[in-house]
Amino acid sequence: MHSNYAQPGSTQTHSAQTKAPRKPFAAASGISGLSSLLRGKLSGLSGLNAGVDLPAETLADGATAFAPSMSGLSSLLRGKLSGLQGLNTGVDVPVEVLPEGATFNSGTFANQAGSRDYKLYVPSGYHGQQLPLIVMLHGCTQNPDDFAAGTGMNILAEQQPCLVLYPAQSGCANSSRCWNWFKPGDQHRDGGEPAIIAGLTRQIINEYHLDEGRVYVAGLSAGGAMATTMALLYPDIYAAVGIHSGLAHGAAQDIPSALAAMQGTTSPLAGLNKQASAQPTSSKGPKIPAIIFHGDQDTTVHPSNGDRVVAQYLPVGRVTNSKIKAERRAGKVPNGRSYTCTIHHDASGQPILEQWSIHGAAHAWAGGTARGSYTDPQGPDASREMLRFFLAHGKGEH
C-alpha cells in the first residue's frame, strides 16, 4: 500500500495585515472554580504527566486566581493535549537544506476573525501550474518548522509536487499553542480559528493559482481535532482530510469536557445523534473522504476517539448497518510496528475512508522522523499514506 515519493523542503513570504485583538484564554472570574474542578477530575485519570501541579490559591479578599491557575492549565494542556511521556518535546529543529528552487518562508495572514503566522513550502517543481495544496495543523507545543521536520511532508511534496501550508497557533490564543478545538467559538463556520484557517487557505489558493479541486487538510492531536472541524465546516474548500490521534468535531465545549473526551470516558458511538444534530448545515451533506491514524496504546487521546471520528465521516446508516462489510488489511513495518487498516467503500465500491490502528503505538505521528517532536519512526508512514489517499480523492472524483 506504500507508494514512492521523497526529498527536502521550502516556501514564500506574505505581508502582514492589521491584527485583531486577542481575548484572554479564560475569564479570570471562572478560573478558581475551574482549577478545583480539574483537580478533582484529574485525580481519577490515568496516564497523566505526574509533573503537572495546579497550585494552591491563597487569595486576598475579592481576588481571583487567574495567573497561577492559568499556569496550571497551561501545563495541563501541554501534558495532555499533545504530550507523550518519554519523548523529547524540546526538539531543536535543524535548518532545512532546501532543494534548489524550493522555498520555505514565513508569512502572516489576517481577516475579521483574527490573524496567524504561517509557513508555506513551495517545491522546486512549481512553475505556476495548478498544484495541490495540503494544509498541516500542528499539535500542542509544536510549530511549523518542528511539524514539517517530524512529518517529512515537505520531502514528499518535493517528489510529488504540491504546496504545503503550515498555519501556526499563537501563544496569545493558547499558551500551549494548541488549536482551540474544544471552544464553542472555534467550532463554527465563518468565525474563530476555523475562519482564519479557511481564509488563509483561500488566499494561498488564489495567490498561487492552485487546483481548487485538490485542497486537503491534516493534523495531529489538537491539530487533528481542528482538521476534522475544518473538513466538516468547509467541504467546499477541502476535498479530503487526514486526522492523526485526533478527536471528533464538537467532542468538547470546554476544558473539563475536553479532558473527558480525550480519556475516552464515553462509548465510541455515544452521542453521535446529538453531535450530528448540532452540526451546521455545511457538515450534513455528502461526507468527504477521510484517512485516520491512531495508536492503540495512546494514553493522551484514547483510541476510542478514532472510532468517533470515523463515525462522523461514514455516510448515514453505515455506523450501525451490520450488513455493510468493511475491508480489513493487516501489515507490519519491517523492523517496526504492525497495524490494521480498515477500508470503507461507498455505494459504487470506491474507498472513501481508511482507519489505521497502529499496534503498540502511543501519541505520536506514525512513521515520522526523530528530527521533530511527537513522532514514532517505527510506525507506518502516515505522511506518505495521507498523500497517497489525498491525491486519489479530488473533488468530483467521489
UniProtKB/TrEMBL annotation:
The organism's place on the tree of life at top rank: Bacteria
GO cellular component, one term: extracellular region
Record flagged with keyword Lyase: no
Keyword tags: Hydrolase, Signal
The keyword Ubl conjugation belongs to this UniProt entry's keyword annotation: no
GO molecular function term, any single one: hydrolase activity
One Pfam family cited in the UniProt record for this chain: Esterase_PHB
Compositionally biased tracts (Polar residues): 1-18
Region feature (Disordered): 1-24
InterPro entries, per the entry: AB_hydrolase_fold, Esterase_phb, Plant_Biomass_Hydrol_Est
Family matches, as PANTHER family: BLL1128 PROTEIN (PTHR43037:SF1), UNNAMED PRODUCT-RELATED (PTHR43037)
Protein name, per record: Esterase
Origin species: Oceanisphaera profunda
